[in-house]
Amino acid sequence: MRRQRAALPAEATHGWSASIAARVIALDEIRRADTVHCYASSLPGEVGTDGLIAQLLTERRRVVCPRVRAHGQLEHREISAHSQLVGAAFGLREPDLELAPPVDPGICDVIVVPGVAFDVEGGRLGMGGGYYDRFLAQVSAPAVGLAFEMQLVDRLPVSDHDQRVDLIVTELRVIRCR
Cα separation of 93 and 157, whole Å? Predict the structure, then answer.
């Protein structure tokens, strides 16, 4: 699935990502949210979040983005401008330590998460580090997985430590998992 996702044409993923962002912005969960946690995508074939983050900031919502830390942990920082995101390890973009203050992720009303694959029951396959599984286990906000239709599978193997998402948003639809 990683290879298939990485091989998607950039022009297609940009258009699909814009459709996904529009669907996310229209969600009741987002319309009610003051603070949204959202990954800052820059990996080939991953659902891009630039447009989504820009729209959230335009709507004057608080936006929290993760930074990858040691031992499978995420650090959470609030950004007030897209320019506060900088390049990081593994080709990721993360909040600048000097410009984006740390926040307690418990303040987030919605968590937007990436994934390599999802199933319609909310099963999520990540990149294998368990970062989001550990994070989602600590918060109660609804988790929204972003995916292209081609990333949906019938069923994923799920372990006890794996955290499910509540919704999946693709370029074609919104799936309410639970």
Answer: 29
